[in-house]
């Protein structure tokens, strides 16, 4: 399947503008288009994935986490959340439940 587009949630767009340069984001998009399944699947989220992405000057370990969901039928990659690693290690159970609800609706 060729992926046709990225869809950003408002939450993702707000954070992305704060924590990624436009060049970093373009490199991230190119990577994800070529490797849409590369992130780790997050348990209890209905298939959402988390990818670690290094931002300029930080590397992967100190960089950014992006939560995304791939819908193969429509060719869309939904960019749901983005945050720096130093803000949060793991998602809470309530965040996972919300992501699962979203993923279920995106699959329709």
Automatic annotation (TrEMBL):
Domain of life: Bacteria
InterPro entries linked: HigB-2
UniProt protein name: Type II toxin-antitoxin system RelE/ParE family toxin
């Amino acid at each position: 399947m060729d992926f046709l587009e990225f869809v950003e949630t408002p939450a993702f767009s707000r954070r992305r503008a704060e924590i990624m340069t436009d060049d970093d984001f373009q490199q991230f998009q190119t990577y994800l288009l070529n490797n849409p399944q590369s992130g780790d699947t997050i348990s209890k989220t209905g298939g959402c994935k988390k990818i670690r992405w290094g931002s300029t000057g930080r590397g992967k370990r100190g960089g950014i986490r992006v939560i995304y969901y791939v819908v193969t039928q429509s060719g869309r990659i939904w960019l749901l959340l983005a945050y720096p690693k130093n803000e949060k290690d793991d998602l809470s159970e309530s965040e996972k439940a919300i992501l699962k609800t979203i993923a279920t609706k995106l699959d329709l």
